[in-house]
Design a protein that fits this description.
The chain has 384 residues and is mainly β. The chain contains two helices and 41 strands.
């Protein structure tokens, strides 16, 4: 394909390579095509400008190692691309949709991707249904709405930033179900390194159900920073926990109250019938975790350690939490039991039992926690 090309209305069947490919061009539109039995469906390599992918049907793309995606978008140069993907039907592929911004560690190449995926079905992928990766100086802005991701062979949706990659991701009004991994996986950095990946991720009003792993799995490593809003989701029947987050090394992880993004941290989720805790936040090393958790309902989850648990494992952790209006099957567990306790702040500590219907258990005791009074959010405390 060349610059400013429209490819529409084709039926492409068979072949071991890409059914449709474009490299180093700008402003392409691919719509109303049917692709079957190819090595890969659509491959866009270092395409810039505007990309439109509408109403394509892609199936049975199961190419060899590194191939087989229904759609692969890869950018490695210092160009910007804006991609609109809508009404795709993608089935029986090695991977559904993969979007990669692969920059250079020296920032001489910093690809910029803005990608919107709407009203799209991805079913029966051999690996991830949706995969988003920002590496080195790559930057991604991703929005997924009104889509269905089912029967993935790994995580339903995988969001990864490594080295100095950065991502702003919104996933909302979608269904992610029956994945062999977690429903949604978010990872920043790699363990024990020193890079500074950054992510802002908002997960709102989705149904995340019957995945073999956690409903939502989160990991922060190195000196990574993560900001989350997880609001209004139904998370049910997953093999692991509902929302499981780990922060380690010197990572900074926050579940933020932010009016601009309509976020109240982890809020108003219904978390039921999972194989682990409804909500579990755990810190190691010198990680910082700041979390407002409010208005969640959990029941029928398989755990003996408290349906909502926040744990500081090491003396050099730095924690703050605000807990309000949570209804859980068992007492909320707050743990700060290293030999020299970490700084673990609790907003309205004297009243926190009354603010949550099942009460709060302090491990080893309430005296190792620090009260933050006069505010209704950890983020009000930070502003002060």
């Amino acid at each position: 394909m060349g610059d400013s090309t429209v490819l529409s209305g084709f039926t492409l069947n068979g072949g071991t390579d890409n059914a449709i490919a474009a490299s180093g061009v700008e402003n392409v539109e691919i719509r109303d095509n049917t692709i079957t039995n190819a090595g890969r469906g659509i491959f866009l390599n270092d395409v810039s400008g505007s990309v439109v992918l509408f109403d394509n049907v892609i199936s049975d793309t199961t190419g060899g190692a590194g191939s087989g995606q229904g759609i692969l978008i890869n950018n490695t140069l210092s160009d910007a691309v804006e991609v609109s993907i809508a009404r795709q039907e993608i089935t029986d592929t090695s991977q559904g949709i993969s979007v990669i911004a692969d920059g250079s560690a020296s920032a001489t190449a910093n690809p910029q991707q803005i990608v919107t995926i709407a009203d799209t079905t991805v079913d029966d992928s051999g690996a991830e249904g949706l995969r988003f990766q920002a590496d080195a100086a790559g930057n991604q802005g991703i929005t997924v709405t009104d889509s269905v991701i089912t029967d993935s062979g790994a995580d339903g949706v995988s969001v990864t930033a490594v080295n100095t990659g950065s991502q702003e991701v919104t996933i909302e009004d979608s269904r992610i179900a029956r994945s062999d991994g977690s429903g949604i996986s978010v990872v920043a950095g790699t363990p024990d390194g020193s890079s500074t990946a950054a992510q802002e991720v908002f997960i709102n009003d989705n149904r995340i159900a019957n995945n073999d792993g956690d409903g939502i799995s989160i990991a922060a490593n190195e000196v990574a920073t993560q900001e989350f809003g997880i609001n209004g989701n139904t998370i049910t029947g997953n093999g692991g926990g509902g929302i499981v987050a780990i922060a380690q090394n010197v990572a900074f992880q926050e579940f933020v109250t932010d009016e601009d993004n309509n976020s109240l941290g982890i809020s108003n989720n219904t978390i039921t019938g999972n194989g682990g805790q409804a909500i579990s936040l755990t810190g190691f090393d010198s990680a910082t975790v700041v979390a407002d958790i409010q208005g969640n309902v959990s029941e029928g989850n398989d755990t003996t350690d408290g349906d909502l648990a926040i744990t500081a494992n090491d003396t050099t952790n730095d924690f703050c939490t605000f807990l309000s209006d949570n209804a859980t099957d068992s007492s909320i567990q707050l743990t700060n039991d290293s030999v020299v306790p970490a700084l673990f702040e609790v907003v309205q500590l004297p009243n926190v039992n009354d603010l949550n219907s099942s009460g709060v258990t302090f491990n080893p005791n309430q005296s190792v926690f620090t009260n933050v009074g006069g505010v209704d959010s950890c983020f009000d405390a930070l502003e002060d």
